[in-house]
Amino acid sequence: MRSHWSGRLAFILAASGSAIGLGNIWKFPYITGENGGGAFVIIYLLTILIVGLPIFIAEVYIGQNAQKNAVSAFNVIHGKPSPFRAIGVLGILSAFLILSFYSVVGGWILSFEYKVLTGAFTDATPETISGMLGGLLGDWKSLLFWHTLFMLITAGIVVGGIKGGIERGAKILMPGFFVLLTLLLFITMSLDGFGDAFAFLFQPDFSKLTGKSILEAVGHSFFTLSLGMGAMITYGSFLEKKEQVFKIAIAVCALDTIVAVMAGLVMFSVTFTYGQEPSSGPALMFSTMPMLFSQMTGGTYLLAAFFALVTFAALSSAISLLEVVVAYFSEERNMSHKKATVIFAGIIWAVGILCALSFNVLSGVFDFFDFFDKSTTHVLMPFGGLLTAIFFGWIIPEEKVYGIFGGPTTAARCIRFISRFIAPTAVAVVMIVGLSDWITG
Ligand code: TRP
What we know:
It is a single chain. By secondary structure, this protein is mainly α. The chain is globular, with a radius of gyration of 21 Å. The chain has one domain: Up-down Bundle (Amino acid/polyamine transporter I). The chain is 78% helix and 0% strand. It contains 18 helices and no strands.
């Protein structure tokens, strides 16, 4: 008997746990900062609606309908052997590569949380703080320690299975995450910079928008919803067939978007209050935020809450990456779920070592971290998404798609039209541009 989520809410928590991650808290605020604010937010919301939501629905539907892992799901729906099972194979490869570097970043976060709790930020000068990430990256022993710890926690959750592990984990991590985020938002609301942050995010200035921002928005809508690599197919496959995918999908996409906006408000309120520029890029989380929080009264507590929240988000995403791999091997290779978890967590951990060493021992030799990151975000995930949109738009019969919506409603027709024409075109363009950018450096 295949295990199932205990209900709709469990799925929503687990799926939003996968979707809500570093993409929302770290990447969304900094790319919004780099792309001028409000106008970018509008484009982002539109791309979530016209690219993200339809592909999200497609993935959950495919998993739910087939009740199989990301590879075999295509064989079940399309007839064996379906060429589209390549989506699943590439998905497993992506999950493997993403988790190997995600776990290293997860380790940075754990290490920062540890620093906060042991008082490393109390009375630290901005120079000390801005050197902390660099110091950590140069110290391969620490990097390996924290990477190992992060992977152990991830595997420790997944080993419990769907209900007893992932669902239970999500039921603790996600409410904890929401409470902490709401708390931080309330606190930052009283800061002088809140009004500016609000205006920055919601008053569009279209003159700041470039073609590149639009591409960035499409690419990010993918990343933030965990699309294009089998994660939502896998989670969907543990959803009972009777559950209605459409409403559930809207709930998860809405939660993911609300969290991104809330995280943006928190980050920019603090940034503007201390007269900083919103476009400080990737350093925003590991150096700007600690620097700013440490100037506030009670800053250490806020910073501890901040890194706890990021830890929760990263863990709930990491478990879904591991489950993509585990679900396939435990179902197709006659392995127990436990055994598959231990073996593959071990292999991914070992590959992750290469990512951790890319910053120090291997620096100048080969940057595995960057290579795994770029090859998944720019090539594998968009390609998986493109094939998924084509499968959903062109292979699955019209009546079946309409069935997801309870009939040929306007929403059903819109989604079908989008997945036939708009989503594949948008994703293809992003993929080509991303690939050429990456190659030309
Ligand atoms: N959505 C995650 C985030 O916003 C990142 C991510 C991309 C992901 N693909 C994934 C997470 C697959 C889990 C599974 O950070």
